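Now for a typical sample entry:
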Amino acid sequence: MKWSNGLFVMSIWMVVLFLGACSPNNVTKDDSLKSFFDSSKVDGCFALYDNGTGQFTVYNLSRYKDSAYLPASTFKIVNSLIGIETGRIVNEKMVIKWDGVIRKHDNGDTITEWNKDLTMAEAFKVSCVPYYQEVARRIGKDTMQHWLDSIKYGNKKIGGAVDSFWLNNTLKITPDEQLGLVKKLYFNQLGFQKRTQEIVKKVMLQEDNANYKLYYKTGLGYKENGKSIGWIVGWIEENRHPYFFVLNVEGERDAPLWTIRKNILTGILKKEGFFEGKR
């Protein structure tokens, strides 16, 4: 489907207004990024926002702006924020003891890194679902709903169970909303205490060296039709300057999205000139 110039400009304006840039001329629709998805046999979208210049680069604008998906483990960002704000998580060093249930991957391999006592920081890094399910139960449905409404997270739906709504396609969020969330988090604008947001940002740091700092959270889940959805949301800092990004990928149920999503992110960021400290 081809866009008319008027419709394309109108959609660009909506994205620009959301991100706080100043002109549709700051938006680059980069179809060359399609090759990263095609080479891995997945669909998806990607967006990168340069906060300093207001430059916004996007691949697959319609998916980015209009399509919503389960957040899967990217919801650990918000679950952490609410847990810390309400005192259910004291700080990133708080331990929740393992319940003794041995969890396994779909292929039968034991998830060794989950089957032990974990701090919040450790649980965030290994994306431990049981830890954060317990946090959600301690938060409770009413309090969880209050905060989803307050920060306007996705469709704000919890449904029946407070410990699985971000995994079972009840809660859904667009890539556009994901990017807006991490941008607000970076600037402590989400309505939580500054301490709360600083702790979550600290545990999101995945790579730190002389050239850059890379902060993100991954997510992996399944749509109602069985296809897999993968996310990476966060930002990269070079020379103390943040660039916010969101990657959304979709593939067959058995597609190794845990590898594919990181390879696509790394490839695109390299193409955009990151990782050398020259941005």
